[in-house]
Design brief:
With 188 residues, this protein is of the alpha/beta class. It contains nine helices and four strands, in the order βαβαβααβααααα. The termini are far apart. The model has no long low-confidence stretch (mean pLDDT 93).
């Protein structure tokens, strides 16, 4: 009698995504859905960095801390990203420089959302890829004009009602840092 071999289960490559807040967590979850739908061997380790932090530097410090904890438990992903609003970095250029250095020293690629997540989300919409609102209030107003149902902290399911893979690729066409993440996870 021969023994049956267990089916081969392909290991999924972990990729760390530190998210400024719940909106970015929903977006990362949406990206995980795209990965799953394409049957790609990637798993996103999504980490919300917002609670208890106030600016990009403190969020990267939180990411570094959590990556060290992951390393002790089971190993931290080698590929690491953080989604951060650029408008906060502009307020204190010295802290922004320290943010960039700390991220680079720890292998974290920062995806600067210029000026904020809502502006990047706006660039996902048909005909709005080149739209560059000057500030966060302008970005929110422009997004709400195009997407009246938009409410801050959209879940992955709510995002999926309005954007799809084509929308992500449209935004990546004008967001070089988003292209880097999408290449890493196999969506691009």
């Amino acid at each position: 009698m021969s023994r049956r071999r267990p089916p081969h289960i392909e290991l999924r490559r972990p990729v760390y995504i530190g998210c400024e807040g719940a909106s970015e967590v929903g977006y990362a979850g949406f990206l995980q859905d795209l990965i799953r739908d394409a049957n790609l061997p990637v798993h996103l380790h999504v980490d919300e960095l917002g609670p208890g932090t106030g600016d990009p530097l403190s969020r990267i410090e939180m990411a570094v801390h959590r990556l060290k904890l992951l390393q002790r438990k089971r190993g931290a992903p080698a590929e690491r990203f953080a989604l951060l609003d650029f408008d906060q970095a502009e307020r204190d250029p010295r802290r922004a420089d320290r943010t960039r250095k700390l991220a680079a020293d720890n292998g974290i690629t920062i995806l600067w959302q210029r000026p904020c997540f809502e502006a990047v989300l706006l660039r996902h919409l048909e005909g709005k890829a080149a739209n560059r609102p000057p500030d966060t209030p302008g970005a929110i107003k422009a997004l709400e004009k195009e997407w009246p149902e938009y409410k801050k902290t959209m879940t992955r399911a709510n995002l999926a009602r309005r954007i799809d893979r084509d929308a992500v690729l449209r935004a990546a066409g004008v967001e070089a840092e988003l292209q880097t993440l999408l290449r890493c996870i196999g969506v691009l």
